[in-house]
Give the backbone structure.
Amino acid sequence: NIQVFVRFSRLLREIVGKIRRNPVRPFWFFPEKPGCRLAFLKIHGMFIVLICVQIFCICYNMRPFFSIVMACCDVEPYIREAVESVTKQSFGDWECICGVEESKDRTEDILREMASADPRIRIFTHPRSGSCSATRNVGTDMARGEYVIFLDGDDTIAEGSLARLHDKIAACPGADLYPCEIIACTEGTDKREIRENYPPES
């Protein structure tokens, strides 16, 4: 998993950087006798390997910040652009869970091609239900992220949206819902409408 290795290497670089900035070389670091020195280096090497394994396990179990659940059904003309709007985000701590309802076009083929290039993209299939709610529910159950975002297979997410949303959450943590605006476009025309996606006042 590329995401795991990225986190692993990041933590390892931080540890190495701290060691370089604060070197500690006690008198026993390199024993004088060659035999003792070899035995010490073996033990020292095993200790480093164990630390690396522990860091790797921690990274593997870390949850992505966002889980983007995407319901897809017969959206071949749009699906590549929809997924690319996620993969091109400047904020990269996410997973994209794509639920494909029995499509008659190449929607699933395109998704599997894109998933082979980016392990953060996960795919599952679901019977056609006439509503995206069932697919979203399955995707939500699969989600590992701290926050879930719903995105349809014929929609896109604006550039930099995840970074701005992350900053909003960091500035006001603990909320159950973080709404945002939606730009609705009418297909075949230049008509664009900004809709506020806020819950009704109680």
User: Anything to note?
Assistant: Strands lie at 66-72, 94-101, 121-126, 147-152, 181-185, 192-196. The mean pLDDT is 77.
